[in-house]
Design brief:
By secondary structure, the chain is of the alpha+beta class. It has a 6-stranded mixed sheet. Strand 7, helix 3 and strand 8 form a beta-alpha-beta unit.
Length: 252
């Protein structure tokens, strides 16, 4: 059976950068990411310049944009069947309950029918796990576990009846360590784990993408992280790029 590639880019922005730096970073995401029609990232809340810049560049580059709290998803309209998008969010926890400042208590979701009907319906989630939640000893561990369980349930529903789903963002824990599994025992797996290619995204291998374990149409093809020597960003995170093979649906 035939297949096509699906390309994605993850970019954790920096809320504390200057207005000029935020503008430069958002411009880079779109001008240098033309071959990656699905873009996901963090730290672009209403209080940042990145919030407005993402909307501006999404319009200029003909992307659908969805920002929830500080998490965002942008998808090039060239891969979207017209009128098929659905924006949403999933609540995780009250910010006041989570230890420390600046946490995203909801994650963004965006679903669409691919312009190629053989690719079917695709759902994307953009997440930002809390800091200090890696291990049971950390104060936010139970909220990280809650986050993972919410993602797991969302992907289970999103992947019904031949549809496929992905989650990307900043997971704030090292992907490779067994005791810091992004899924917390759930049924989604990172592309780095699938390829056994873990790369530093600025603070270790903490940013990336995952696919739902039971999406049998999906297989990992390539995971590449571009550090500042390859693609300069003012953010303290590097850009990560994922490529998946997606087996085509059998159309009637």
């Amino acid at each position: 059976m035939t297949s096509s590639v699906l390309k994605m880019q993850v970019s954790s922005l920096q809320y504390s950068d200057s207005a000029e730096q935020q503008l430069e970073d958002v411009r880079t995401l779109f001008t240098k990411g033309k071959q990656f029609p699905i873009k996901v990232g963090t730290e672009a809340g209403l209080e940042t310049n990145s919030y407005d810049h993402l909307k501006e560049f999404a319009k200029e580059f003909n992307h659908v944009i969805h920002i929830r709290k500080s998490n965002w998803i942008a998808i090039d309209r060239k891969i979207i069947q017209r009128g098929s998008t659905k924006k949403g969010s999933v609540f995780v926890a009250e910010n006041d309950d989570v230890f420390g400042p600046g946490h995203d208590s909801e994650f963004a979701t965006l679903a669409f029918n691919h312009a190629d009907p053989r690719m079917g319906r695709i759902s994307i989630a953009g997440v930002h796990y809390p800091t200090r939640g890696k291990t049971p000893r950390d104060p936010n561990h139970k909220y990280t576990d809650m986050y993972a369980r919410r993602v797991n349930e969302w992907m289970r529903v999103a992947s019904k009846r031949g549809a496929i789903s992905f989650v990307g963002g900043d997971f704030n824990m090292h992907d490779r360590k067994p005791d810091q599994d992004w899924a917390h025992g759930g049924n989604f797996t990172s592309i780095a784990d699938d390829l056994e290619k873990w790369q530093n995204t600025g603070h270790g291998p903490i940013d990336g993408f995952c696919s739902w374990d039971y999406d049998r149409r999906v297989s990992a093809k390539r995971w590449n992280v571009l550090d500042d020597s390859e693609l300069k960003m003012h953010s303290d995170h590097y850009i990560g790029r994922a490529t998946w093979n997606v087996r085509h649906l059998k159309l009637k």
